[in-house]
Amino acid sequence: MNSQQSLIEANVADKIKDPKVIKQITIAMRHDGTLPKHAVAKLGPRPSEQDTLALWSAVLDKALTNTQYGNISQDGKFDDWLTRLYINGIVDYEDIDGEGGDALGAWKALSLRGKLKPEHQDFNKFRSLKQIQSIVQNRDYRDELRKIQDAEVIEKHKRDKQEISILDDDRFLAVVPLNYGSCYTFNNAHGFNASFCTGSSSGHSWFNRYADDGPLVSIFDKQNGDDVNGKWQMHAPTNQLNNGNQQVRGDKEFNDRFPGLMKKIVAGLESNAEAINKGSGHIVKGGYDMAKAVSDIKTKFPLSYASGEEEVKPEGDDSDDTPGTWLVTHTTTGRTARVHADNIAHVHQQLLQRHPNLNMDDFTFEKEPANEQP
Where are the domains of the chain? Predict the structure, then answer.
């Protein structure tokens, strides 16, 4: 970026017209041992007014644009105030660039929300950055600032998130996250604050680790959003299906709580397969193999997939939900086995206990009539 570009983009340079102030800024910069050496070298022994203002604007923009509490660079009082402190030797580059922006951002965030005590509300009374830092670090403001900061981070990730919705009805929302921003938002943005590692503060690496093996699915129960069981995350390749604090896990638990939901999720994956494949091209070469992703779910979570509230049986027909004996036939080889079980889901469970990698789609299931059972 050249000096002219810096001038155009900066929010302070065009406000400083007084030659005396410009000279004072130049002098302050010459005596500021914390300025980056490359910036000082670029100024040269006799910097022009334009170069001086461009550097000063860059310093302020960097400090005020990306604070922990959002962008405060458009609030003119902050850059004017910092300029006065700088030319009077009260602050240096390190003070401003290091923690100055965050301290001012914290003060503004508290002020806008009416959380400041009356004696801390008048900005014109402050004579140093340390004053503001000591105030915002006060125990009375600590919890409030943590909430505000978390909200700012959540909003950032909301803007950055990439995901594909596969189910959104009156009860449930299910999405396939395509980046860390989606996982972070899911953990924190609404309802129970989940503890999935893919959405934690170090979730970038965890998302990459899991997403490389196949799609994650984030599942939200809108009717029970504030409950620990209102959020679930599924990753079939690693056989994980966990609730919000990961204390309740697995196929049976999910099926008991949400009969029929897994079929809807699979249907959503299938109907959005092309979009998910295309959207995941930056994660794995060629995008996700959606046929395999669906097969993984059916294989790893057979109880949940076998159940379905949407399945309508003839009135009085509860044959799949009562104890009995099933003829289980492998369609490829034609071999048949007889399995005694409490219901059809129990049949699937027994098969997978013996052979964890079986695909239930490779079998047919027929319950023997009651009068033919031993």
Answer: 3-153, 161-306, 319-372
